[in-house]
Structure formats: C-alpha cells, structure tokens
Known about the structure:
Blueprint: E1 14-20, E2 24-31, E3 43-45, H1 52-69, E4 77-84, H2 112-120, E5 124-128, H3 129-142, E6 150-156, E7 160-166, E8 169-170, H4 215-229, H5 240-251, H6 256-279, E9 284-289, H7 296-309, H8 314-319, E10 321-324, H9 328-345
Parallel strand pairs: 1-4, 4-5, 6-9, 9-10
Antiparallel strand pairs: 1-2, 2-3, 6-7, 7-8
Family: Belongs to the ROK (NagC/XylR) family.
InterPro entries: ATPase_NBD, ROK, ROK_cs
Protein name: ROK-family protein
Amino acid sequence: xxxxxxxxxxxxxxxxxxxxxxxxxxxxxxxxxxxxxxxxxxxxxxxxxxxxxxxxxxxxxxxxxxxxxxxxxxxxxxxxxxxxxxxxxxxxxxxxxxxxxxxxxxxxxxxxxxxxxxxxxxxxxxxxxxxxxxxxxxxxxxxxxxxxxxxxxxxxxxxxxxxxxxxxxxxxxxxxxxxxxxxxxxxxxxxxxxxxxxxxxxxxxxxxxxxxxxxxxxxxxxxxxxxxxxxxxxxxxxxxxxxxxxxxxxxxxxxxxxxxxxxxxxxxxxxxxxxxxxxxxxxxxxxxxxxxxxxxxxxxxxxxxxxxxxxxxxxxxxxxxxxxxxxxxxxxxxxxxxxxxxxxxxxxx
Length: 349
C-alpha cells in the first residue's frame, strides 16, 4: 500500500472511506470532527478482474492498511463508506448488465456492499463513484452550509457520471439510479457541426450527454467525424482508441481539432446543466473527470465554456457558482467517508 505524505492519529471515533476502481482501491479515514486523517492517495491493487472474492479481500486489505497507517484502533471505526463504478443498485448490487470493471459473469447481481459488510463485520454505506465524488465536492465547497445547499455534478470519464445533491444529501431515487446524468438526452442545436451525424451512446440512446461528453463519445462519435475535417492531423495515423486518449494532450496545446472536439463536449454539458437548472435550480454546478486533471489553462477554458453554454435566468446566474471537483483522485473515497459519517450521525448506521 502506498503511504500518504501526511497522516495523523484520530482524536475521536472515525469512519473509513473506500473507493473501488478498475486497477486500485483508494482509502481514507474521517474522524467525527470532520477531519480527514490522510492528505494524499493511499492505494492498493483492487483485483476486480480476478472476480468478486478477490476484490472483496483487496478492499479488506485496504481497510486494514489505512487503519495501520493512521494508527487507528479497529474499535474506533463506526462505519465504512464504499463506492464503486456503476451501474449498481442503491444498496450496492452490481447490475446484471455489468460495467467495464465488472464484466465477468460472477459480478452480475453481486452484492458487493453486503459482502464487504460481512467480511469486515461493520456497517457499510454504499454510493456509486460519481455520487461519492459529487457528495465530496458539495461538502468541500460549501462547508458548514452544505446541509442547506444543492448542487449538480458532471464527472467526465470513460462515460459521463453525475450526482445530484440536495440539502447535503445525494438524491438516490427509487432504484438507486437518480443522477445518471450521462443518459439525459439533450437538444443538439448549437452542439453539433452542420452535417455531423447524431452521436449514439453505448446504451442505445441517440444524443444523450455521454454520447458526446465522455472518452467513449470521443472515440465512437466525435473524433471519427473531426478527423474527416482534419485529414492531415497526426492523430489520423493512430488507432482510434489510442488517438482518443492522446487528444487531451493536443487540447492543452490549443490544437484546432482537439479544441473543436472539447468545445462540443463543453457545450453538451452546458445543455445538461441548463436542464438541471430547470429541475433543481442548484446553488453550484461541479465539473470533474479527466478535464480536471489537465493543464490549468485548459481546464479553466473548459469550465468557462461550460458556464457560457449553460442558459440561466439572471436570478439563477447571480445565485449559482461553477467550480471544479477538488482533489479528484481522492474525491471518491472522501465522498464515501462523508456518506458514512452522515449515516452514523443520523443514527441509520
């Protein structure tokens, strides 16, 4: 397990946050006073490709390792927060359709929350990774006012994850699938170029946000089109999957093709936030994902383009803020820990 640069021992009871990913787990500890005991990534291999049993054991190792690192006695742990990539139910049952990280048949319908709870002998609170990041962004941004505010987050990655927070709580929905913002279909006027084919999502929808604002959308829809407009571009000689991953580096250098692609992504997210403005009228709109990990000038340009593409009434524009999800590589684990702390405080765990 990688060591964090700064650790401290707890002065009160704690909760543990565990972020499960395709290659690594990330762990953190949050004490009852709202202080995180580690300030950097603390990771171990997630082993999800080895199947559920190995993955649950790897999460248990992450749990044990973070307690050792922070000199936290097991007796002080009141609950554990867990997040995984979706799709999954509100209670942490992996969808039968599976996700990229959970494509083995053994994962389909697997109750990862319940399995970890049994393995650790502690209550486990579950969110998907986008909801956990959204929750952390909300609480980090608003601090003491978090329970009085609302926010909407768009997390751009392989897909487009999202989270809706109201009064400091993630809106989960009847089946646990609220906040699946990637599959909101948006008006394409002002997003697509003249004659550009309507993007199709892997879910089968046409013109949803994920079909444009995601790495998959770049690979499947946007880049193939824009390479026809820039046939001499260096990426034209690369396999499309590699070209899609290299595109952000070109965007950071203000390459015209890359700017065309990322402008479309930003405008699509603006359309999404415009819809959100008329549903929840949030206090803040958060943007996370790969663009946050880019060079500062590029991510600020992207956020500005999202803001300019979001149509708000004057009253909303004065009241709302646009911001980047902070500490993105740690946001999932920290958000999972915040959810666990809230559950303990509310007496539900």
